[in-house]
């Protein structure tokens, strides 16, 4: 019952708390908000006070996407552009592990046993990170790799407001090609990708072009493939991700906050389109960040 009450709680107001609304949210590219979750700022007040004055704060966005889709790349580019921290939960875990923080021993045990880090630990690391940022005068964030479950999404909703969830998408066969094309130089550690993707658009669907990232000649003979980059393992990874992410996508879709973005290709093709979809294409720093 408690969970149900929480689920039926009206979502927070969206438009009143951010300085601009991504263009795509006002057009047909985003699904209609579920009428069960009214977004009026005048409905039941949020039981928790906002973390800071919403008028002063920067964007609070979440990036979702399959492994290999490039959400880290786009998330960190946008964080540079908007001057907000890019917070990846994987980095938080690694950082805690390398520190002598209170959770590091517990974490080391979990990771060494190959177990999943619990929601509680992730939430605790994230709150700590957000509080530290706030103390330094940081405002806003782009979350990468979080929330991964409905439960995490619900907890996050109780802690702070999420303005927008960007779901980056590529067709599965493109993700597969990209993962199978990954190569690492055994000498210098450089990362490359030999996959060359050029899919012609048909039936009204746009094509996808992604240039390979080829190694320089002195690395070419020393390339290695990660042992878990096999077709079966990559497919399983994508399958597990899809199963896990669909309820989270639905959670935000029902609140009118999910922006679906089909990547049209690699960074040169996708970056300008993404900025357009986010209504950032006339952002003053766009030029320097794209360079
Ligand atoms: Zn090399």
TrEMBL record:
This protein's UniProt keywords: Kinase, Nucleotide-binding, Transferase
UniProt-listed Gene3D superfamilies: P-loop containing nucleotide triphosphate hydrolases
Location of the region described as Disordered in the Swiss-Prot/TrEMBL record: 33-57
E.C. code: 2.7.4.3
Molecular function per GO: AMP kinase activity; ATP binding
InterPro entries: Adenyl_kin_sub (IPR006259), Adenylat/UMP-CMP_kin (IPR000850), Adenylat_kinase_CS (IPR033690), P-loop_NTPase (IPR027417)
CDD domains named among the record's database cross-references: ADK
SUPFAM superfamilies assigned: P-loop containing nucleoside triphosphate hydrolases (SSF52540)
Reactions the enzyme catalyzes: AMP + ATP = 2 ADP
Domain of life: Eukaryota
NCBIfam families: adk (TIGR01351)
Family under the similarity heading: Belongs to the adenylate kinase family.
Subunit structure: Monomer.
Name recorded for this polypeptide: adenylate kinase
């Amino acid at each position: 019952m408690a969970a149900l009450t929480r689920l039926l709680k009206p979502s927070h107001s969206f438009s009143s708390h951010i300085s601009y609304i991504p263009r795509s949210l006002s057009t047909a590219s985003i699904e209609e908000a579920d009428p069960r979750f009214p977004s009026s700022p005048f409905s039941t007040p949020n039981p928790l006070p906002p973390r800071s004055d919403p008028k002063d704060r920067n964007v609070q966005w979440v990036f979702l996407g399959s492994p290999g889709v490039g959400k880290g790349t786009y998330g960190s580019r946008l964080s540079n552009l908007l001057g907000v921290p890019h917070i990846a939960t994987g980095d938080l875990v690694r950082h805690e592990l390398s520190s002598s923080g209170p959770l590091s021993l517990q974490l080391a045990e979990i990771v060494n046993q190959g177990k999943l880090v619990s929601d509680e630990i992730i939430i605790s690391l994230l709150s700590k990170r957000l509080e530290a940022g706030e103390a330094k005068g940081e405002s806003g964030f782009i979350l990468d790799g979080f929330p991964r479950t409905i439960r995490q999404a619900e907890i996050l909703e109780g802690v702070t407001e999420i303005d927008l969830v960007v779901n980056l998408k590529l067709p599965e066969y493109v993700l597969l090609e990209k993962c199978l094309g990954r190569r690492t130089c055994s000498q210098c550690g450089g990362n490359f990708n030999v996959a060359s993707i050029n899919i012609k658009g048909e039936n009204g669907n746009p094509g996808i072009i992604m240039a390979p990232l080829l190694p320089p000649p002195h690395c070419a003979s020393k390339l290695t493939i990660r042992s878990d980059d096999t077709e079966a393992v990559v497919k399983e990874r994508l399958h597990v991700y899809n199963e896990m992410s669909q309820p989270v996508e639905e959670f935000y879709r029902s609140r009118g906050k999910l922006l679906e973005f089909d990547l049209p290709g690699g960074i040169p093709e996708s970056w300008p389109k993404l900025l357009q979809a986010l209504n950032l294409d006339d952002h003053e720093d766009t030029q320097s960040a794209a360079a």
